[in-house]
Structure formats: structure tokens, C-alpha cells
Amino acid sequence: MSRLSGKVKFYIFTGLGLFVFIMRPPHSNDNILLIIIHAVQEIFQSYYSHITLFFMLSVCLLTFYVKLFKPKHLAKYEFIKKNFNVKALQILFRFAALFFIVSYKFFDFSILLKLNVASAEIIEMTGSIIIFITIANFFLPLLSEYGLAEFLEVMLDKVIKPIFRVPGNAMVNLVTSFFVGSTMSMYLTGIQYEKGIYSKQEAMRIMTTLTVPSLSTGLLYWSVIGDSAYFFKFYGLTVLVFFTMAFIMVRIPPFVNMDSKKGISLEINHQGDNKLDYAIKKASERAFKTRYSVKNSLLSVANILLSFVPFLITLGTLSVLLIEYTNIFEILSYPYGLYLKLFGFVQPFLLSQTLILYTIDLIMPSVILRNILPANTQIIMAAVTMNQLIYIAPMLIIMSFHGLTTKKDFLIIFLQRIILSVPITLFWSWIIL
Questions:
Q1: Which of 125, 172, 185 is closest to 362 using CA atoms?
Q2: What's the CA gap between 422 and 418, in Å, rounded?
Q3: Domains of the chain: which residue ranges?
Q4: What's the whole-model pTM score?
Q5: Considering only CA atoms, which of 49, 24, 39, 11 is closest in space to residue 283?
Q6: CA atoms within 13 A on the CB side of 276
Q7: What confidence score (pLDDT) does residue 223 get?
Q8: What is the DSSP annotation of 237-262?
Q9: Do the Cβ atoms of 310 and 56 come closer than 8 Å?
Q10: Sites in the chain below the pLDDT cut of 50
Q11: What share of residues in the chain are helix, strand, coil (percent, to 5)?
């Protein structure tokens, strides 16, 4: 009964997830998920800044209460300890973000004019992003929690190892990255490395070349940049570039020189079943164990928003001020601009600033790219930056696992991604755009 129940759940929920994420109604440029999100965003469009204000005010009040009074009745909750008993720097970012919002909404003073102009678009955009992430996160479990990863792991075991030089079970990490996020995939890989499932070489290959930009991140990134009608061209190009870089990078130093010893080896055992039957069996077992929780989904949304909204508003506003009134980003990104100019990119020195900005925040590069035309140029430039974003943003996770990599190897891999992404993106763009 449990096996039948699991199989039914796998078919129904995975099928529903694929329908929501992939299907587009006739005469529509959006998939079902985007239609739902856009409909809700349209309802609340006039209230984006209010939503942002309410969110940051709640965050700051609870942070102030937890830090000042240290309530024992809240200390037992892991979510509170993790997100509100925070260090001074995070508190500074939160209250700075709140000040920028309050200033934009209520302080119409000439002395604050430049600040309010700089923060306006960021604050309005944040309200849109809050709605976007909240809705998308309720649908993501349909693809990540009901057996699709296990199904793909079994079916693609004989494909992934010869192509990407990692075990077949790395498909779980790849699918986790695609449907959930690169940060979660990197963390999962690090834990598996510590357990001896992966060698140092395999773990680094997965973390830095197989943490594919997630579907939700791609949706979020492109929703800021351009017309949703071009999303699948952008994301298709991004993924093609990503896997091409992965194919090349796993075969060159520093990966080929890393330690390839590991503690244990995981092998797929079909136990007499053919591959498809076994894949369905593993997927059904996972689906049977999964229990959807609205509470966990809401906590997941809160974790995501708390991790980047204060930084987005604060660093985004300061970055806009620096871009508008200083030339610091132009100076730091000038070498990258020269490199892009070699390939004939439109506005190469403006695009080169995204290389600096993405080390600060995910959204800021898209703010620059949204003002660059034509659409094909936006797509190409977005794919270039997206294939760098997935590596830098969670770099602290990689460095947090003891002995996994050295600073020298880390820098070499980083530079390889920058150098390879440009010509590879142009190559694929000539074919598909």
C-alpha cells in the first residue's frame, strides 16, 4: 500500500510541478507559474513600497526586541535564534534599510533627495520580489520533494560520470541546485564530502561547476531585466553555457590535480529491476515520505527574505549612489571591460560593473542590464553574469568546509569562469538566438 501510495504521489505532484513550471497556455508568453505570480503582483503593484516597509519594520522591531530583552520563551525556537539574535553588522544593515524606506516614504527633504531617488527603484522592486519569492516557494516542493531528483539520479547514472567526471549520485546535488538553489546544493555537497561520499576533487567539481543556476533564481533575475517573453531564451542560453563550462573545467587544472580519494562509494543497485522500474521505485519511496507543510514553506520564505532583503536595500541604494556620483565601479571593473570589448560587446564598460556588483548582491547587476537594449544583448549579457553569480554568492560555504580547497585554487577557478563564460556565451548565442 505504501509503495502504491508513494507512486501515486510521485506521479501526481511531480506531474503537477512540471505542468506549472513548463506549460504555457496558447497565445501566452508566460508559463503557469509566471501567470499566477504576475496576476498577484498586478493586484499589489500600487503597494510595493508598503509591503517592503511592513516587512523591514517587522524585522527591525523583532530584532530589537530579541537583542535587547533576550526573551527566554523565544530562545527555544531555532528560527528566532538564527535570524534575530544576529551580529552588529546585520543589525546595522537592517536598520539602515528601514531608514532608507522611511526616508523614501515620508521624508521629502531636499537634503535627502539624492538618497530617495537612489533608493526608490530598489524599494519598489523589493516589494515585487517579496511577492515573487513567496508564491514561487510554495510551488518549488512539487519538483524538489516528490521524487524527481531520485528518478533522475537513477536514469542518468551512466551519463553524468563520463561527461562531468563525478558519480551518478551527484545528480541529486545538480537537481537540488536547479530546483531549490545553488546555496543549498553547495551545503549538501559539503556535508556529503565530510561524510566521505565525495572526494575533495568530486566535491569541488560539483560545488563550482555543477551548481546550475536555479530555475527560481533565473526567474527572479530575468523578471528584473527584461520582457518575460524572452525568459526561456535567456535561461536556455544560461544553462547551455553553464554545462559547456562544466565539461571543460572538470578536465583541466586545478581539478585534475586535486585529491581523488574518498571514504565510501555509493553504487546504484537495480536489485533485479530494470532501470525505469527502479527509478520509479526510488522516486515513490521519497514521495511517500514527503509531507507538505505550509508552516515550513512560510519559514523557508522568511529565511530567504531575511537573508537578502536588508542587504539588497542597503547595498543596492549605496551602490546606485556610488554609480551615479563616483567612478569607483568603473575603475575596479576596467580590466573586465577591456576583455568584453575584445568580443564586441555593446557598452562593455557598463556591463563590466556587474562583475563587481554581483559580489555584493544578486539583484544589482540586473538593475544595470534592464536598461541595455536590444533584447538579444540583454539575454547574452544576463547569461554571462548569471554564470558568474552562481559561483561568487555562496563562496563562503565552500571556504567553510575545512581542507576542501585552497585560496589559490579558489582564485584560479574564479578566473576560469570569468574567462570562459564570455566566448562560450557568444558561441551558443550565435546558434540559438
A1: 125
A2: 7
A3: 2-142
A4: 0.70
A5: 11
A6: 0
A7: 79
A8: HHHHHHHHHHHHHTTSTTGGGS----
A9: yes
A10: 266
A11: 75, 0, 25
